[in-house]
Write a structure and sequence with these properties.
The protein is α/β, with parallel strands linked by helices. It is 20% helix and 20% strand. The chain has one domain: NagB/RpiA/CoA transferase-like (Rossmann fold, 3-Layer(aba) Sandwich), CATH 3.40.50. The chain contains five helices and twelve strands.
Length: 226
């Protein structure tokens, strides 16, 4: 007996009492994957968990007030180089960037030009606290996927109401027909000798700015610092 035969026998044994006329859709399957007690969307508990998970992945995380977003973005991108700001990004949040540094993607920037860009600044569709994941779907303020893969720094602005606790909650809210990108920390990979290399499949640095009503006195919660 080989493994294939054994697996098929086990399947037949498990299905031995199922009527031949029964269809898969005739049997209800519970979809309540989220356990009780998960933090509600947008809650301080959800925001704190998201910040903790992102920091564990090596991202820089700051909790900021609405009024401090523009200044914090300017500090994150630093003083030199160009910054891509996708169409639909709130003008008030980009107001502290010098206009001559800002590039749009209309018309689309060539890859060679994107490669010379220092940073990209986006919003998110959703953020998942339990996994420390930022989800982009190409909506307003997010742009196409290449914008967040080529530049060395990705600054992502997250509004607290967009933070949900779990992956099932997020999937129930997302449109599967949109180009979804799931980001958990800066890009990193390891070769066969487990040597970690950053920036191969995306930006080496990820700055997450989470908008909250009352930021902590020390707003940086990242192991990577500010």
């Amino acid at each position: 007996m080989n493994a294939r035969t054994e697996v098929l026998q086990r399947i037949r044994h498990a299905l031995r009492d199922v009527p031949g006329s029964e269809r898969a859709e005739d049997v209800p399957v519970p979809r309540d994957y989220s356990p009780g007690g998960t933090p509600p969307p947008g809650s301080q508990q959800a925001v704190d968990l998201l910040a903790e998970r992102l920091a564990e992945y090596g991202a820089s995380v700051r909790l900021v007030s609405e009024g401090d977003v523009a200044a914090t973005i300017a500090r994150s991108v630093g003083g030199g180089g160009s910054v891509v700001v996708p169409e639909g990004f709130p003008p008030a949040w980009r107001s502290a960037l010098r206009p001559e540094r800002v590039l749009t993607d209309v018309p689309r920037l060539p890859v060679a030009e994107l490669d010379r860009v220092s940073a990209v600044v986006t919003t998110v569709a959703l953020a998942i606290a339990g996994t420390g994941t930022l989800v982009l779907d190409g909506g307003p303020g997010q742009g196409r996927r290449a914008l967040t893969l080529v530049p060395d720094l990705h600054v992502c602005v997250v509004e607290a109401p967009r933070v949900v606790a779990s992956v099932p909650e997020a999937l129930a809210l997302l449109d599967p027909a949109r180009p979804l990108t799931f980001v958990s920390g800066p890009s990193a990979t390891s070769d066969i000798e487990l040597d970690r290399v950053e920036g191969v499949h995306g930006p080496r640095r990820l700055d997450a700015l989470i908008i909250v009503r009352a930021p902590a006195t020390d707003d940086s919660v990242s192991a990577a610092g500010s």
